[in-house]
Amino acid sequence: MAKEKILDVKKCEFTTAGLKMVKAPKMSFVVVVDIDKAMEKAMKKDPLLMQDMADAAEKTYKNFCKSINQKLATFDKLFVTMADKGAPEAMMKKQVAGLKKTIENEVAVGEKAAELAVIGEFNKLKSKKKDWKKFKIKVTVSIVGTVTGMVTSIVLMATSPFTGGAGGVIAIAGLFKSTAQLTKDIGAIAISIDKAVKLMDKTSKIVLKTAESKGVFTANEASAAVLQEFIGISQPSFKTLSEQGDVVKAKHARLVVRVHDVAKDLNKVLKLQSKVRKEFLAEAAKKLKTHPTSKKKENLKKIEKQLDAVLGENYNTVQTLIEKVIRMNSDAKKWEPEIKRLMAIVKKLEKMDTKGLKVLREALKIVGVGLSVIDGNKISTTAGDLTKALVPAGAGYVYDKIASKALDGTVFDAA
């Protein structure tokens, strides 16, 4: 038996134009006819005798390519649709397996069709040539290739978790934590100032009452120093009044610093939020660039809109907190001129003697007016409100929540 290769296509010509996700398989299409010596001798006299069989094989090959192209186009459209809808990896892989099975079936059908087509043409020749009736042939059709790697990186469909802006969100969480501690400190400082102011008011009245008794003023100052030094009991005197004034002044300065620190932290949150937005969208754009979806622009636009919506809510929340801080700062600043005036009076009282009783009395009236302006409870209440508000505000910056809302309904939606 001699082998006659009537068709030898080393690389099947599948159409790739228009395909977005599917790659054409690499295959060869070979048809070999085994003939006996008598037929081989007859063919040497007329080589064209095998042409009709070769044409039949060629026709079958073209039909095979056409059928494969149709399957590729159908599945490609399916994959693109699934990609646009954000189909999960498992579903995509299931369809990939379906495509591979379909191609394998087409190969089996193509091989059988080519065999039958060649045998059919051979039988026609036998009916025309009487001397061919005794001839026999064996047709071997071999369609060889690979059906792996036919889909453009199916792994692309297994969307890796988003991390763009995650570092900024972690930093924001740290800021909320430190800000909460600051607002707690502000509340405590405001209350301590309030207590110190009230103590000054009480002390000043006792000092005034004592000073009104002739000769007692100096003795009271002396006894106060002795009791403070040896027993640790602070008796109302000009000295204790001055010390309380220093406490109020120092604590107020610390209060102002803390309020500014809160404002700075909250402003940092807004700056970091802008960074989170920029990094998140950059990652989305990068992922979409290699994603097989045909709706890249639409998806990016939707992600941007939804991200701005969720971050916008957070932005408004933080702005509300900043407005409270501004009001609290305004309240604290109202204390500054009163504390300054108060300290000036205290210094003046330290230099007074019993002869200046009238001046002392008038001065302490002014002190009372100044003290009434300083209300620590108001700032403490605002600080408490801020502390409480920071918890839900911080919860708005949980990365998974931000990502979930931003990616909802896009190709990266995990749902």
Break the fold down into its secondary structure elements and pairings.
Elements: E1 2-9, E2 26-35, H1 37-45, H2 51-84, H3 89-128, E3 137-146, H4 166-211, H5 216-230, H6 238-290, H7 296-350, H8 357-373, H9 376-395, H10 399-407
Helix pairs in contact: 2-3, 4-6, 4-8, 4-9, 6-7, 7-8, 7-9, 7-10
Task: Describe what you observe in this structure.
This protein is mainly alpha-helical. The protein has two domains: 156 residues, no CATH class; 242 residues. Helices cover 72% and strands 7% of the residues. The chain has ten helices and three strands, in the order E-E-H-H-H-E-H-H-H-H-H-H-H. The chain has a three-stranded antiparallel sheet with strand order 1-2-3. Helix 4 packs antiparallel against helix 6, helix 4 runs antiparallel to helix 9 and helix 6 runs antiparallel to helix 7. The longest helix is centred in the last third of the chain and has 55 residues. The chain is rod-shaped, with a radius of gyration of 46 Å. The two termini are 63 Å apart. About 2% of the residues have low confidence.
How would you concisely characterize the structure shown here?
The protein is built from 10 helices and 3 strands.
Task: Give descriptors for this structure.
2 domains; 7% strand; 3-stranded antiparallel sheet; 415 residues; mainly alpha
